[in-house]
Design a protein that fits this description.
Blueprint (H helix, E strand, L loop, with lengths): L2 E2 L2 H20 L6 E5 L5 H17 L2 E5 L7 H13 L5 E4 L9 H7 L11 H8 L8 H12 L8 E5 L6 H10 L3 E5 L6 H5 L4 E4 L17 E4 L3 E3 L2 H7 L7 H11 L2 E3 L4 H7 L2 E2 L7 H20 L3
Helix pairs in contact: 1-12, 2-12, 3-4, 6-7, 6-12
The structure holds NADP nicotinamide-adenine-dinucleotide phosphate.
Length: 310
């Protein structure tokens, strides 16, 4: 049986470490401060932001949420960011994506002070990542490296295949694995014979956004499979295709769907990854919890730098 890589356990470890780091920051006069900007009413974004703010408050980070309306202009949002850049009590600024289509998201990301860019998406921090200089790293890929290291899964010298090339996950993931001395291949929607490329991977990262796409045909037996995908299914037929009734474990998933009206699945096929991989992250309970933990860690990093805590 494949080993299940428990993201909740690693998240709790990181949170415990965060608590003692926060105590040191507080001893310098104030708690770390995180400002989250949520524009409009995107239901998924509202859940993500609620969880981020809840975790920050639970740890003792001074959280603040700004919720400008959907109608805000790029200039008005830039003014909000500039105000947060100037505030001494704010160490981290996170603008929840996606922004409404009329907002120039690139200008917003570029306006965040690189020192407070806890998502690690500012071009200066992307450059720091490429060149191996210190700086905040994007939370999801940084969390995945933490998970691999804490489970003592070797990275150096291994073949890693990353499916997905977004600025948020795929590209920074590939760079972080490269810095850990993996031999890295990045795949995307134009990659020919994707299953064959994926089967070369000792570590396969799926950051695609396609429910259960990574079947056993993509997995080298014994490989480590990291499933980044968060795909919400809202049709029962789609759930039944992935969780056929004759499979042990399907009934529970279908009951959960019937209760909630939707079900979240990853990019890896839940049964086939469990049968074929050596180790894998489940969805939910794998990569998701790490993203928030690393956001907290990046915020504390920023507070430590700004307050001179060694
Ligand atoms: P994205 O910006 O939509 O990027 C998806 C990538 O997958 C693109 O590079 C795309 O290729 C590639 N792709 C799409 N269909 C493909 C196919 N059939 N074959 C090969 N490659 C394909 O998404 P993202 O922001 O990176 O997120 C990816 C997934 O991770 C989503 O499900 C998202 O919800 C989830 N996510 C989870 C967390 C977490 O905390 N767990 C955090 C962030 C994102 P092209 O570039 O060629 O279009």
């Amino acid at each position: 049986m494949a080993q299940v890589l428990d993201g909740n356990r690693i998240r709790d470890e990181i949170k415990t470490e965060c608590r003692s780091r926060i105590e040191k920051v507080v001893s310098r006069g104030r708690a770390p401060g995180l400002a989250v900007v949520l524009v409009g009413h995107n239901p998924a974004s509202e859940i993500y932001v609620r969880n981020k703010v809840k975790t920050s408050l639970e740890l003792g980070i001074a959280g603040e949420t700004l919720t400008p309306p959907e109608s805000i202009t790029t200039a008005e949002l830039l003014a909000i960011i500039e105000g947060l850049n100037q505030r001494p009590d704010i160490d981290g600024i996170l603008v929840q994506m996606p922004l409404p289509p009329d907002i120039d998201a690139r200008r917003i990301v570029e306006a965040i002070s690189p020192a407070k860019d806890v998502d690690g998406l500012h071009p200066l921090n992307a450059g720091n990542l490429v060149t191996g200089r210190p700086g905040p790293r994007p939370c999801t890929p940084a969390g995945i490296v933490e998970l691999l290291k804490r489970y003592r899964i070797p990275i150096a010298g291994k073949r890693a295949v990353v499916v997905g090339r977004s600025d948020l996950v795929g590209k920074p993931m590939a760079l972080l694995l490269l810095h850990e001395n993996a031999t890295v291949t990045i795949c995307h929607s134009k990659t020919p014979d994707l299953p064959a490329v994926c089967r070369e991977a000792d570590i396969l990262i799926a950051a695609i956004g396609r429910p259960a796409m990574i079947t056993s045909a993509y997995i080298q037996p014994g490989a480590t499979v990291i499933d980044v995908g968060i795909n919400r299914l809202d049709k029962r037929a789609d759930v039944e295709r992935i969780f056929p009734l004759d499979r042990f474990g399907s009934a529970q998933k279908l009951a959960a769907f019937d209760y909630k009206g939707s079900l979240v699945v990853g990019d890896a096929h839940p049964f086939e990854v469990a049968e074929c991989a050596g180790a894998y992250t489940p969805v939910p309970g794998g990569v998701g919890p790490l993203t928030i933990a690393m956001l907290m860690s990046n915020t504390i990093d920023s507070a430590e730098r700004r307050l001179g805590v060694c």
